[in-house]
Amino acid sequence: MEGVDGDGRVAESDVDAHEERRKLSISDLGIQRTPATEQTLFGKSRTWASLKASEIIYLAMAFISLIASMGLSIERIISLQKGSSDYTFALFLLWTTIMCMFHVLEGVKSEKPCDLLVFVITSVAVLCYVIFNYATKPNDMLKLARMIIGIVFAPILIGYGLRLAWNYYVSKQLIFRTVQSANVDLQKMCELIFVMSSLLKFDVQLGVSTYILYLDKGLTDLSLDEIIIIVCGVLATIAWVILGFLAMRYEKYELVYVFFVTSIIEPILIIYNLTRYSGSKFQALLIAVYTCGVIAIVVRLITIYCMYRVMNNFGHGLGMKGYY
């Protein structure tokens, strides 16, 4: 028998050949592994190839709905008078739609339940406003179209969005790939960083929304004080959020201390604006101004607390692991 010597033993050459075949890797066979993650501005994210068909369909439906809403908002901004409350709300909806795109994309690709929850909550709030706004002027065909789009897409986006958020919270697959360890404590620390990232994006959404809603009469009749407050407030909010991302990424205590000290700027400006707000004849705008202002302050406090907990976990290199 070939390969067997006189004593019935397998020849050494055959054994060596067998071992060589066992050492062959997938790359040796010319098969390229498809990477499961990639780097983005906000850290590690799943590749498009790694997404399930249901997730891609969900993203497609979300973006179809959001793009349609964006188009209607832009049309309203072009056609409406710049001194009307409807103009202010059109600006608000346009900004909210843009941020919702970031939330749903980051929520699915980066498996961040908090971003998906923010997207779901925002979708519910916008749907309620759209229905209420149409009820005030039932003869407006654009408002009717916007309401129909919301009613058709919202139940699916909200329901399946909650399901995806729960699945990501339970599985924690991307967190495991980021930490590259089965250590539960490290995974919880990484999860906290993911939550902090979602809160920072939600904070900038609420902050800018508050300043937009403060424009009771659109972009007309703005005093110099109002212009300074709005411009400085928006810039301060954006700078504060960027500072938070940098503090987490590089695990710098000095940046965190600056983050804490400057965190009071937005709440002070929001409270100042609310106390000076003259009110609006448009009931929906009046409700939105105070609701958004209060939620923005609450989210800012939660973000500060979350950053404090993240700071206590510095030294494990999770900031860099999350981005590289």
TrEMBL record:
Keywords: Membrane, Transmembrane, Transmembrane helix
Family annotation (Pfam families): DUF7789
Highest taxon, organism lineage: Eukaryota
DUF7789 domain segment(s): 42-159, 183-305
Segments passing through the bilayer: 56-74, 86-104, 116-135, 147-166, 227-248, 255-275, 287-308
Official protein name in the record: DUF7789 domain-containing protein
Highest classification ranks of the organism: Eukaryota, Metazoa, Ecdysozoa, Arthropoda, Chelicerata
